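// run 5 | inverse folding | seed 20
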């Protein structure tokens, strides 16, 4: 009997799972949109954000945990998942990885691992180093799965969607093997006892080969015609095979001629991956929508009969006829079947227990019944009745509680002019365009996306809905997904949208909705995806945003939101993507954002945010995409940025100043952008910093310590005095700017004075404050935030350069005569010197 392992992860969509070989409670799973989760015996926690993909726990040392992001970003932890580092990525392989990029560990040697990109890659040191051992086997297609034979590690299988390759020498050479024609491969399993016995799950079929893929036998039996997802073989004499499908798990072994359902207690759900825990006798599954479950392995008992299950109609079918022919799988060596039908599971109020003997079918006249019918077929013999058998559910008649709401919505949105109209004469609303219902016939998804005018891409048929979203939408209490993107809808969002308590996905992007942010949305605590991008919403964001504990993706870009970002954004602990770009948010960045451990991507570009970027940004441990460009962020670049592994970091067109911290060298080669910050070296050209260290903090000259007039005096200096400053040791030269106002240049525009530490700017205004900016430089640039210095002038002048040794006597010859009056004032500026004034103009001297 299946039991849930979920705790608070009951609707998680797992792609892959793995468990520890020495601790049955240590589990890991990679899930869509919700990252990678681990349970280390004390409850589930998220250890990586983004989309969680393939994962495994080292069977020889559970400290070693491996996980991955989509499309080939494989990571490794050596401390039970507390911290991860990149292990193998497309940047290293120069090859693409599949959405779920596979990797496996040799079951006989835990040091050997294989990973599939376009080629097969191999590591012999637990993933620290990798080599391409196959080359591209399939014209650039990506490997979808790998398997190493437990009985002989020389045998390694790699499959693509349409081809299978086998190596018999641990990956040194590869050859293509046959596969069944016309089928897309979903999974492959190798016998624990024979490397040439392999099972293949493909599309809606299962095949078996006992000769290494030279030939194949279809072993579907009476399996339902649904997609297969995962297959695994137990290490026992029965050759027990477990098969994952879109509706649950099936089992067979060599004592059986057909498959049986293995779903007691398991919800009817798509299986992501199966895993056998041989040591603890468990079968675990990661489901795509109902989390993780486990069951004891199948126990064959020769006493009581095995369970059977309904073949036709399939469980979950809706039946509109008054007579229903029930057919189930035949069970051998029994006396008959007990058939029970009830309106609730375990009840018999529709059809009391009826013995069916000699056949495996029964025609049921439903006598006009409409509703859910639970059908249970229990084989029996002299030893008793089969226990814990699967119950099938049929939906009988035409009953849909949400039909009237949909008809009203259809009318209000002018459905008669839709491109894809609803056939309202069909009582089965699940057949109406864009409608999905659950087992009870309640609407769970409404998908009426429109058309992107820019790309002509049609979403759900491109109805291009107009008008306002009516409040009647709040009368669909089971609605989980609402998609109305790329339409021409306008007006506010109705407040009673708060009634959609089960809503998880809401996309109203690319419309003309307006008004303030609807407070009712913040009451939808199950929201995981919210996209209101590219509308006309305005006003401030409320602190009540923090109620969204399950939110994974929040997109409010391209609106007219204003005000400060609320600190409660830091309460979105499940968020891995937040996009608030192209609005008018102002104020500083809430430091609480940097505590979001799941945050994978943050886009706050094209706003009016100011202040500085805190070094606490490194606290968002999984953040690898950060967009802060086109804001007003100032101050220096935090050195801590160089401690993270960024995929994209864009801080262009802000007001950053200073230099590039040395640690940013760690980011060279990544997508890093500081361009347009005019107070950074080379206008923020990060590529120039990477190629030549230009602007590196440790190599730039320091600022000059100040002016260096004789005696340290800075008050009442002669107005024609040379400006002097203190030398900077590692400066190759200086740029000088002098003015009568702060940062002014009316006396001297920015001028390169070479490596001199003084400069004659000529006469300066008398009795004035003079502002001096000195910028030392060398080949790595110049500092951009040096202090400005000042001194004051008097109305006197020395008339000579103080650097001359004037001795105790000098004659000064002013030219022309008009300066003679001025020269007489030299006495006020010269002491202890004998001088004589001679007016040479009278004798024609130039």
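// decoded
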């Amino acid at each position: 009997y299946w039991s849930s392992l979920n705790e608070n992860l009951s609707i998680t969509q797992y792609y892959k799972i793995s468990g520890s070989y020495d601790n049955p409670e240590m589990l890991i799973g990679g899930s869509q949109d919700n990252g990678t989760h681990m349970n280390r015996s004390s409850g589930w926690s998220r250890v990586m954000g983004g989309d969680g993909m393939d994962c495994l726990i080292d069977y020889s040392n559970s400290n070693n945990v491996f996980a991955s992001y989509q499309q080939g970003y494989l990571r490794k932890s050596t401390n039970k998942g507390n911290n991860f580092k990149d292990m193998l990525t497309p940047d290293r392989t120069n090859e693409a990885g599949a959405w779920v990029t596979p990797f496996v560990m040799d079951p006989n040697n835990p040091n050997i691992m294989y990973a599939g990109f376009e080629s097969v890659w191999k590591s012999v040191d637990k993933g620290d180093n990798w080599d391409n051992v196959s080359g591209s086997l399939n014209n650039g297609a990506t490997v979808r799965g790998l398997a190493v034979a437990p009985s002989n590690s020389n045998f390694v299988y790699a499959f693509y969607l349409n081809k299978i390759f086998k190596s018999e020498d641990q990956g040194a050479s590869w050859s293509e093997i046959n596969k069944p024609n016309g089928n897309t491969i979903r999974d492959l399993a190798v016998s624990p006892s024979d490397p040439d016995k392999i099972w293949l799950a493909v599309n809606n079929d299962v095949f078996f080969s006992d000769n290494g893929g030279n030939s194949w036998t279809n072993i579907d039996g009476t399996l339902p015609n649904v997609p297969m997802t995962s297959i695994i073989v137990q290490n026992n004499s029965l050759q027990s095979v477990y098969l994952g499908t879109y509706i649950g798990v099936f089992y067979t072994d060599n004592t059986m001629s057909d498959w049986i359902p293995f779903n007691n207690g398991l919800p009817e759900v798509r299986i992501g991956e199966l895993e056998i825990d041989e040591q603890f006798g468990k079968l675990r599954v990661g489901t795509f929508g109902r989390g993780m479950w486990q069951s004891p392995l199948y126990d064959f008992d020769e006493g009581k009969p095995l369970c059977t299950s309904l073949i036709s109609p399939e469980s979950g079918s809706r039946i509109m006829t008054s007579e229903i022919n029930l057919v189930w799988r035949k069970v051998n060596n029994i006396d008959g079947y007990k058939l029970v039908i009830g309106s609730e599971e375990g009840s018999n109020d529709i059809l009391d227990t009826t013995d069916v003997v000699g056949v495996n079918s029964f025609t049921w006249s439903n006598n006009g019944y409409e509703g859910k019918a639970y059908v249970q077929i229990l084989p029996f013999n002299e030893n008793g009745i089969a226990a814990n058998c699967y119950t099938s559910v049929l939906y009988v008649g035409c009953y849909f509680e949400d039909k009237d709401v949909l008809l009203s919505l259809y009318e209000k949105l002018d459905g008669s002019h839709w491109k894809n109209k609803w056939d309202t004469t069909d009582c089965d609303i699940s057949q109406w365009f864009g409608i999905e219902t659950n087992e009870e016939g309640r609407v769970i998804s409404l998908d009426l996306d429109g058309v992107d005018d820019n790309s002509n891409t049609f979403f759900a048929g491109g109805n291009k809905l107009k008008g306002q979203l009516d409040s009647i939408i709040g009368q669909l209490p089971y609605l989980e997904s609402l998609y109305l993107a790329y339409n021409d809808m306008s007006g506010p969002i109705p407040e009673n949208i708060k009634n959609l308590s089960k809503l998880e996905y809401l996309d109203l992007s690319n419309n003309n909705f307006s008004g303030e942010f609807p407070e009712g949305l913040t009451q939808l605590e199950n929201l995981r995806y919210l996209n209101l991008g590219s509308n006309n919403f305005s006003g401030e964001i409320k602190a009540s945003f923090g109620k969204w504990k399950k939110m994974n993706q929040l997109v409010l870009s391209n609106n007219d939101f204003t005000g400060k970002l609320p600190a409660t954004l830091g309460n979105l602990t499940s968020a891995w993507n937040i996009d608030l770009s192209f609005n008018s948010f102002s104020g500083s960045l809430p430091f609480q954002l940097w505590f979001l451990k799941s945050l994978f991507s943050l886009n706050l570009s094209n706003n009016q945010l100011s202040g500085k970027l805190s070094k606490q940004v490194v606290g968002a441990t999984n953040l690898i995409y950060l967009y802060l460009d086109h804001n007003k962020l100032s101050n220096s670049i935090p050195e801590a940025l160089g401690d993270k592994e960024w995929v994209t970091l864009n801080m262009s067109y802000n007001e950053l100043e200073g230099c590039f911290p040395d640690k940013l060298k760690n980011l060279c080669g990544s997508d890093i952008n500081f361009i347009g910050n005019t107070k950074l070296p080379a206008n923020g050209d990060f590529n120039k910093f990477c190629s030549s260290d230009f602007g590196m903090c440790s190599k730039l000259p320091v600022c000059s310590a100040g002016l260096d007039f004789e005696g340290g005096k800075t008050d009442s200096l002669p107005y024609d005095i040379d400006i002097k400053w203190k030398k900077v040791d590692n400066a190759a030269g200086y740029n000088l700017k002098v003015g009568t106002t702060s940062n002014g240049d009316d006396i001297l525009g920015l001028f390169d004075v070479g490596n001199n530490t003084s400069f004659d700017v000529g006469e300066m205004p008398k009795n004035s404050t003079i502002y001096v900016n000195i910028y030392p430089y060398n080949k790595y640039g110049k500092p951009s935030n040096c202090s400005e210095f000042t001194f004051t002038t008097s109305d006197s002048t020395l008339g000579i350069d103080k650097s001359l040794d004037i001795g105790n006597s000098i004659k000064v010859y002013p030219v022309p005569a008009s300066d003679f009056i001025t020269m007489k004032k030299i006495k006020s500026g010269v002491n202890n010197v004998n001088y004589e004034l001679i007016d040479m103009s009278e004798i024609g001297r130039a």
